[in-house]
Every structure is written in structure tokens, then in C-alpha cells.
């Protein structure tokens, strides 16, 4: 795992990629503020497989690109 990066640094370094963020720091709304990028890929499923291999105790996933306007997002 690398150094701790802010969300802005992650978005700049890993444009339009899915990130596996280990040891994330969150704000009061549980939004990720910073953390260590353990894995990144253009393919979301690869990130989930990496999480299964690494088995981090605390992690978050983040997509750094734009979500298409016609895409459905389920939270």
C-alpha cells in the first residue's frame, strides 16, 4: 500500500478509475476524506476481487470518473 492521499489527490492521480481505499478517514457524514489506495482499475469487478484477496479490515471503494447521465445508480 502507498501513502495516504486526499480524495482530490486520488481523483487527479487515478482519473476515471475504481479505487480500493484501505484505512479510509471519513468526515461526520461518513464521506471518505483520505486514505491509502491499495488497488485501482478501470474495471470495478477487479477492485472487488482485490478486496477479497487483500481482506482489509476497513475499506471503501470509489469511482473517480463521471457517471453517465443515463446510468441508474442504486445506493
Oligomer: single chain
As residue ranges, the low-confidence spans are none
Q: So what's the overall shape?
A: globular
Number of separate structural domains = 1
Question: Gyration radius, to the nearest Å?
Answer: 12 Å
SS summary, helix count: 2
Order of helices and strands: EHEEHE
SSE-based structural type: alpha+beta
Overall mean pLDDT stands at 93
Beta-strand content estimate: 35-45%
- Give the proportion of residues in helices: 10-25%
Strand order of the largest sheet: 1-3-2-4
Report the count of strand segments.
4
**N- and C-termini, Cα separation:** 28 Å
Largest sheet: 4 strands, antiparallel
Kindly list the characteristics that best describe this protein.
75 residues; alpha+beta; 4-stranded antiparallel sheet; 2 helices; 24% helix; 36% strand
Characterization of this structure:
- The protein contains two helices and four strands; from the N terminus they run E-H-E-E-H-E.
- It has 75 residues and is of the alpha+beta class.
- The protein has one domain (4-63).
- The protein has a four-stranded antiparallel beta sheet.
Amino acid at each position: 500500500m502507498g501513502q495516504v492521499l486526499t480524495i482530490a489527490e486520488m481523483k487527479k492521480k487515478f482519473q476515471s478509475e475504481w479505487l480500493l481505499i484501505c484505512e479510509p478517514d471519513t468526515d461526520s457524514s461518513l464521506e471518505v476524506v483520505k486514505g491509502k489506495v491499495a488497488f485501482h482499475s478501470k474495471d470495478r469487478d477487479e477492485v472487488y476481487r482485490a478486496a477479497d484477496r487483500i481482506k482489509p479490515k476497513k475499506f471503501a471503494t470509489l469511482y473517480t470518473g463521471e457517471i453517465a447521465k443515463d446510468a441508474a445508480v442504486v445506493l
